[in-house]
Write a structure and sequence with these properties.
heterodimer, A: about 120 residues, mainly beta, seven-stranded mixed β-sheet, four-stranded antiparallel β-sheet, about 0% helix, globular, B: about 110 residues, five-stranded antiparallel β-sheet, about 55% strand
């Protein structure tokens, strides 16, 4: 199993550009999440999905869109990049059977810089 | 008052020492408590998971929850240089992982 994979590893954008961060998992997990990690702020939930076709907002959803058309993939779209979105982005997946808190796996992260 | 407080460190200890990492919290409804380990430039990795109060041991790692004091701890025995990482505490009212609140993490250095 590859686990949770994320692409790209690094990205530099100019203000106003859009892009999609890719996330895929091969563990057949129902739950998938996107977090951002900033110095001094910890991990904050952006968007969340409990299964294909179902998504919900987390703590910091503004400026981001998600969709979940398959169990495996959960892309995160930045609509119009802003310097405040400079961060490290982590995708995570978990098994729904026990709620998810005891089985959460994180991807390696995407380091995004917005100039 | 922040929901979850964690000293950012860095904490430096000699190899072989017992390490104690701690978090305090304000929400008495938290029931699920986790510790994650995050190596530099990597994603967090779930290390320990505890439900409600008590202790849980896994090899050199012991997680302790004291709900009366709203205080959780992670102990690392016989610490190794490979334990050098950032340790994040996390907790949740429900067992749904979209409700997890993370601490900011403590950076730990084990000195050879």
């Amino acid at each position: 199993n590859a686990g949770v994979t994320q692409t790209p590893k690094f990205q530099v954008l100019k203000t106003g550009q859009s892009m999609t961060l890719q996330c895929a998992q091969d563990m057949n997990h129902e739950y998938m999440s996107w977090y951002r990690q900033d110095p001094g702020m910890g991990l904050r939930l952006i968007h969340y999905s409990v299964g294909a076709g179902i998504t919900d907002q987390g703590e910091v959803p503004n400026g981001y869109n998600v969709s979940r058309s398959t169990t495996e993939d959960f892309p995160l779209r930045l609509l119009s990049a802003a310097p405040s979105q400079t961060s490290v982005y982590f995708c995570a997946s978990s098994y729904a059977g026990t709620g998810g808190t005891d089985t959460q796996y994180f991807g390696p992260g995407t380091r995004l810089t917005v100039l | 008052q922040k929901e979850v407080e964690q000293d950012p460190g860095p904490l430096s200890v000699p190899e072989g020492a017992i390490v104690s990492l701690n978090c305090t919290y304000s929400n008495s409804a938290f029931q699920y408590f986790m510790w994650y380990r995050q190596y530099s430039r990597k994603g967090p990795e779930l290390l320990m998971y505890t439900y409600s109060s008590g202790n849980k041991e896994d090899g050199r790692f012991t997680a302790q929850v004291d709900k009366s004091s709203k205080y959780i701890s992670l102990f690392i025995r016989d610490s190794q240089p490979s334990d050098s990482a950032t340790y994040l505490c996390a907790m949740s009212v429900t067992n749904r992982d979209d409700k997890i609140i993370f601490g900011k993490g403590t950076r730990l250095h084990i000195l050879p």
